[in-house]
Amino acid sequence: MGRPSNHQKQYRKRQRQGKQDLRFLSLLLFLALLLYSALSFYLISRMTNIDHECYVRVSLYVLGTLFLWSFALRLLWKYNRMGRIVYWLCLLVSVYLYKDVSVLFSLTWEPVLDRYAFTVLFLLKCVMLIYGGLRLTFSSTIRSIWSMNELFDQELADLESVEELPNVIPLSQTDQRIVALLKRSSITLALCLYLSMIAIFVVLGVMGNRLPEYREGLHAIQYQLFSECLFSALLWTVPIIMMYMGRKWSPYLIYAGGGGEFIRLGLSYVTYIQLFQNAFIPTAVKLLFAAIACMRYLMLYFLCRNLLHHPLIKQLRISRAENENKE
After folding, report:
1. For the whole model, what pTM was predicted?
2. pLDDT tens digit string along 26-38?
3. Torsion of CA 211, 217, 221, 226, to 10 degrees
4. Rounded CA gap, 254 and 261, in Å?
5. What is the predicted pLDDT for the residue at 291?
6. Which residues does 125 contact at the CB level (< 8 Å), separation at least 6?
7. Environment class of residue 312 by beta-carbon count within 10 Å: exposed (0-12), middle (13-18) or buried (19+)?
């Protein structure tokens, strides 16, 4: 076999870039769907005039659509050509299922601001999903993953006109293992953060409907947990994205994330005292709040600890220190 031509090299480079773009897009859409689901559960759980049957129906709708999109995004994550078709089918199915959302707008929202917040979330989710579909259809890098025939004539002409690029030094086997470790850790951290948000609000919502005597107390701790979960989701987004992109310095962002959590805990000290001194909140609800908060922080601690104490990360820190000493 002869050496690949410049045209073939450029096409393979575009394929590699397309695979990175597709995985980043899939991860971004999945995180956006998880965040939308968690925020929706929180806003719906604050509604006082929603009956148990309606709450269950809406919860099943949110979880069902999340599972449906997860299937399509999983196919795209594996570079399966059918993923594009399934993605657009999910969009069509979602348009049909959105008629059930109109039931929520017919209810009375207290406070009214929650209704506007839910509307904005719903519109942002629609925009994100449409954006994903357009990227799958018109992105030249993503379309090049499956076949050169997917490219338009002008894009093929651009490939032929690009000059020969210098050879790129491939990553060593150790560097490849480090990048793979960072990507796995970022996905695990993202799933734990966002799925725990959904689980917390589903459990609290079901308890509020099943145990009306604790409803006021559960609503009180929901607000505090919502602010904490939202802060954590936003704070850890940057480390998650940087680790997924394989940046070798990204593990240091974990220390920044942990520092941010400690600062927020210190600033919330008075709020915690007021919550535990509130006589209107049952003791069982206070203990539930403490258990959920401890569970969240223990989960973050062990995930970050396992990554930072991994032999590959230790080796990376040692090599960096040696390079700095040489300089």
Report:
1. 0.61
2. 888 887 887 777 7
3. 60
4. 11
5. 92
6. 32, 33, 36
7. middle
